[in-house]
Amino acid sequence: MVQPTMDPAEAFSELGRIRLDQSSLDEMLGRVAELASQTVPGSRDVSVTMIRGRAGTTVAYTSELARGLDEWQYEHQRGPCLDASASGDSVSVPDTTAERRWPIWAGRAHAAGVGSSLSIGLPIQEAVVGALNVYGSDPHAFDPAAIALAERFAAYAAVALANAHLYDSATTLAEQMQEAMRSRAVIEQAKGIIMGERRCSPEEAFALMSKVSQDSNRKVRDVAETLVARAMKKVRR
Question: What gap in Å lies between CA 93 and CA 82, rounded to an integer?
Answer without folding.
Answer: 13
